[in-house]
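quick one before i forget lol
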Amino acid sequence: DLMMGLVGSEMCIRDRPNTIFKSIFLYPNPIEKGKEYISLNFGNYFTKDAIINVYDLFGRIVLKPEIEFDELNNIKMEIKSLQSGIYFVKVKIQDNELKAIPFIILQ
């Protein structure tokens, strides 16, 4: 079971205890049109096994970002090719999957 909430201007998903994730933060959210990147922060959890896809409202994959963690466990995703609208990030690590982390690109 997942809990989703807004922390400041960051959308986060927190899972129940005893699972692989403690929290994942996506920021900034919403995003002004023209921004080139958003970031996902994995907190204290580091893995090279993450699979991340970005979907539109119709469930189509619109972005398969390259995954490179920085020193703070952030993944920076280039989004400049996306139009204004609502999108969802799907993160899969091993057999644990988090769905529908929403983000908005403003006009």
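fyi Confidence is low (pLDDT under 50) at residues 1-20.
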